[in-house]
Each structure stands twice: as structure tokens, then as C-alpha cells.
Design a protein that fits this description.
With about 150 residues, this protein is of the alpha+beta class. About 20% of the residues lie in helices and about 20% in strands. The protein contains 2 helices and 5 strands. Helix 1 packs antiparallel against helix 2.
Length: about 150
Amino acid sequence: QRAQAVVLLEDMQARISGNPDDAANYVTDTALGTEDTPGDCTTAAAGSARDKCEWSTALLGAAELKGDDDQRVGGMIGARGCVTEIQALSSVPGECRPGIYQVTVAWQGLHATRAPAYACGETEYGDETMRRAIGVRVAIGVPTCQ
């Protein structure tokens, strides 16, 4: 499950890095990957909206289907994804600072261990020692600042 979480984490990191002008729109109010069924992402506008839809679908395990009813079997147990803003991007002269975003993937572990420090998925898996989470920060630079 951890290996799959790393792949999903790197996927969103690449999506945000590849679309720096729209980085703030990747921030999620609630965790992604919690819908009952994956949506049709082709109807979402290209950019952050479609990227979040596709990431949510991947978190749900829709990449691997089984049986005639297309049961999703490719996901981690209770996978969720969150993007939070650590620092807002500013291109104001003299104040130039990069935008910094935290991307986190959380899932339910099989055995109790230490609770993770990341907030994504808190209280969603019963005892916090059953929650697993990994994260990465994405920095969006301000190349036009002096």
C-alpha cells in the first residue's frame, strides 16, 4: 500500500509542478478519493479541476477493475488525498516568495503503529494508530521577481 501511495503522491506532485500558474487551485477543502464511484473526468475543465478528478479516481482504485460489475480492486484501503497551501505565492516586488503546497496521501493500515503527523484523513480510520500517511511539499518559484 505504501508503494502505491508513493506513486499517487508523485503523480499529484508532477501535476502541480507542471501547471504552476494554477497551483493554488489544487488546494482541496476536503480529502479526495472519498466518492462512492469515480466520476467522468472528461467533463472537467483541463487543468487543476481535471487533475484533481483523475487523482481522486486513482485514489479510489479505478485503475484496476475485476469482474463483470467492474469492482475496483486497485486501491489502498480507504485512500484519501489532500493538498494544502503552506505559503501563498507572491510576486509583489520586494516580497517575492514561492508558493509552497503540501501533498498528502493517507490510507488505513493493517496493524496499529504510531499515528502520522499529517492531518489528511484524521479521524477517518478509527484509532489514529491505524492511519498511514505520507507527504511531500511542492514549491512553485517566482522567476519574474528580482
